[in-house]
Amino acid sequence: MSALPVDAEGPQIVDDDLARLRMAFGRIGRVLRQQTDDGLSYPLMSLLLSIFRTQPVSAGDLAAAEGVSPPSVTRSLNRLIQLGYVSRETDPADRRAALITLTPRGMQERDLILRRREIWLTQHLGQLADCDVVTLLNALPVLERLCDPALPSQQAIYVVPE
Questions:
Q1: What pTM was estimated for this model as a whole?
Q2: So what's the pLDDT on residue 91?
């Protein structure tokens, strides 16, 4: 078992702990993404949520945000338009471009997706001891910084030993 040096003054993170973190984050993300029963695929759900966060938005900006090719985003957008979840309107500032926004039906679908995830999370947090829930809540600022793409890549992340 090797240790990953994080900082000369900070704790060492061992490979087993890195693997446990990666697996736990992966499982939580996967289970939350699966909290749907309407047949909407994960890429479509991700695109729907991304549109909500950035609307009005161009297809090119969505492709960049989702890390996929513009043709892939166009296919997905066409499906969301068919479902009545998004609309594509001409950009008044540039008539050659189009802006994508959620329709009222798309907003309802977004709310439903998030509500299902919140229900799952509430049920599972309710199975934990109060002190464990408090520990998770206190860890939120650290987890948010961990996910923030604006953090410098050499930023040290400290693990507090028990």
A1: 0.71
A2: 85
